[in-house]
């Protein structure tokens, strides 16, 4: 879509499901080809993406990577197809990972771009600070998985915003986030009833108080990693054993204030994987 070239895509609709057959580069005089099988199935053409059926347009957006999506964003900025394009973007599920592309994209402001277009970010695995985390919390309500391991700038303020804005969160990794305290854990316990997996290893400011709140509010918890949390004692383990009946994995190694009695309590939990 740069200079005098555009992307052409050959698409077929097999048993009602669109399928991309061919992608390439061509000059504008070559039309977009697509097929919708039926009683009189035939290859059809469209002169521009604006003339494509919505179903076909949606599958094109789903097929393209974010580099090409960005090209569409610029190319359709002042065209009639803009509204269809934005509606289609909302159908996409985005997983942000720890790689060079996303690291550079976030630095350049792609987070605000995703939020402003209501794109469904379902997974985020990239370092952030409180400001970015609060943007995620307010703009990504369908987030299901979040990994903010080693994000030393994250505080309870960001965690409280997360617990308020992302009620569908099921997996949360925030190990080595040293500034998080019981206040943040209480917020998680109140706002994330669907939470199934939590890693807070080496978060040394979390105590039994936070664990009790977690056990009380997150009954669906299946995996908990509190490795190296030295302020958690037998009392915290007892709360988990009582309040988390679905727990399958528990990691408590390096918790120096958990005694032999607490470890026996941990072993009694009906879990498949206990690491003490």
Tell me about this structure:
The model is unreliable at 1-30 (pLDDT under 50). It contains eleven helices and twelve strands. It has helices spanning 54-63, 66-75, 82-89, 100-107, 110-116, 130-139, 156-165, 182-191, 208-217, 234-243, 260-268; strands spanning 6-14, 17-26, 32-35, 43-46, 93-96, 120-125, 145-147, 171-173, 197-199, 223-225, 249-251, 273-275. Helix 9 (208-217) runs parallel beside helix 10. The longest helix has 10 residues, at 54-63. It starts with 5 loop residues before the first strand and ends with a strand. It is elongated. Strand 3 and strand 4 (43-46) form a beta hairpin. The protein has 276 residues and is α/β, with parallel strands linked by helices. The strands form two sheets. The chain has an eight-stranded parallel sheet, with no helix packed on it.
Alpha-carbon distance between the two ends: 57 Å
Which stretches are poorly predicted, pLDDT < 50 over at least 5 residues?
A: 1-30
Shape: elongated
Q: Give the strand line-up of the largest sheet.
A: 5-6-7-8-9-10-11-12
The assigned structural class equals: alpha/beta
How large is the share of residues in beta strands?
15-25%
Got a strand count?
12
Question: Portion of residues in helices?
Answer: 25-40%
What is the count of helical runs?
11
The largest β sheet comes out as: 8 strands, parallel
Taken in chain order, the helices and strands follow as EEEEHHHEHHEHEHEHEHEHEHE
Mean pLDDT across every amino acid position? 80
Radius of gyration, CA atoms, in whole angstroms: 24 Å
């Amino acid at each position: 879509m740069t200079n005098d070239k555009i992307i052409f895509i050959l698409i077929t609709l097999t048993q009602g499901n669109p399928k991309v057959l061919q992608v390439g580069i061509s000059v504008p005089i070559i039309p977009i080809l697509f097929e919708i099988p039926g009683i009189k199935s035939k290859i059809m053409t469209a002169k521009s993406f604006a003339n494509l059926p919505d179903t076909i347009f949606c599958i094109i957006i789903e097929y393209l990577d974010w580099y090409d999506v960005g090209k569409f964003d610029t190319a359709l900025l002042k065209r009639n197809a803009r509204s269809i394009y934005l509606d289609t973007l909302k159908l996409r599920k985005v997983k942000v990972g720890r790689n060079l592309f996303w690291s550079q994209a976030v630095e350049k402001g792609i987070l605000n771009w995703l939020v402003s277009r209501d794109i469904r970010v379902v997974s985020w695995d990239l370092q952030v600070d409180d400001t970015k985390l609060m943007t995620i919390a307010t703009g990504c309500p369908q987030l299901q998985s979040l990994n903010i391991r080693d994000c030393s700038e994250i505080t309870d303020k960001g965690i409280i915003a997360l617990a308020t804005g992302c009620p569908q969160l099921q997996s949360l990794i925030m190990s080595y986030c040293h500034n998080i305290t019981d206040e943040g854990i209480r917020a998680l316990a109140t706002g994330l009833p669907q939470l199934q997996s939590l890693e807070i290893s080496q978060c040394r400011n979390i105590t039994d108080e936070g664990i009790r709140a977690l056990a009380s509010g997150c009954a669906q918890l299946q995996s908990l990693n509190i490795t190296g949390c030295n302020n958690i004692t037998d009392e915290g383990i007892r709360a988990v054993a009582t309040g988390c009946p679905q727990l399958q994995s528990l990691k408590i190694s390096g918790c120096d204030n958990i005694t032999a009695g607490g470890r026996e309590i941990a072993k009694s939990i009906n879990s498949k994987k206990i690491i003490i």
